[in-house]
Amino acid sequence: MEFLQSLILLEKRRSKKREFTNSGITSDDKSVMGNVFRYYDTEGVALEDIIMKFDEVGYIVDWVDFYEAAKRAGWKDATILKKIDYALIDTKGKEYAQQVLNQLQTHI
Predict the structure, then answer these.
(1) What is the pLDDT of residue 84?
(2) In this structure, how many other beta carbons lie within 10 angstroms of the beta carbon of residue 76?
(3) Is the model's pLDDT at 20 over the cut of 70?
(4) Cα dihedral sign, 5-8-13-14
(5) What's the total number of domains in the chain?
(6) CA dihedral 37, 39, 40, 43 (to 10 degrees)
(7) Residue 1 pLDDT more than 80?
(8) 39 CB-near residues (< 8 Å, 6+ apart)
(9) 83 closest CA partner among 50, 58, 56
(10) Does residue 14 have a pLDDT over 70?
(11) Which of 23, 68, 73, 79 can pair with 32 through a Cys bridge, CB separation 3.0 to 4.6 Å?
């Protein structure tokens, strides 16, 4: 019985690590969600799909958190920035992608 309880507790901890976290709220009342890289990397969900789903529910990605998590996972700067750029161009357009990358550059 103790083993089963330990297993259940471990699974709860694992699933919490995959949940998105609320990093804040934008001036136009959208929730800024972190832990996106972990979800993308662990679950294999396309970043474009995450962005589109977030748009539907009024969330945006915490790109600083995404960048920092990717760095901790061993990704190179150029790879991270290209992935963000391509995903944003595909979902929100080149101008929006450039705005995000410019703002991200001030934090890295």
Answers:
(1) 97
(2) 10
(3) yes
(4) positive
(5) 1
(6) 150
(7) no
(8) 18, 20, 45, 50
(9) 50
(10) no
(11) 23
| Total Cβ atoms within 10 A of residue 19 | 11
- Burial class, 91, CB count within 10 angstroms (exposed 0-12 / middle 13-18 / buried 19+): middle
What is the band of 67 on the pLDDT scale with cuts at 50, 70, 90? very high
The three state secondary structure string of 20-79 is CEEEEECCCCCEEEECHHHHHHHHCCCHHHHHHHHHHHCEEECHHHHHHHHHHCCCCHHH
CB atoms within 10 A of CB 99: 13
Which residue type sits at 57? Answer: V
- Does this model's pTM top 0.85? My answer is no
Sole residue written with tokens 């979800």: 39
Tokens linked to 19:
């949940």
Q: Which domain holds residue 68?
A: 2-105
Judge whether 51 and 83 are in contact, CB under 8 Å: no
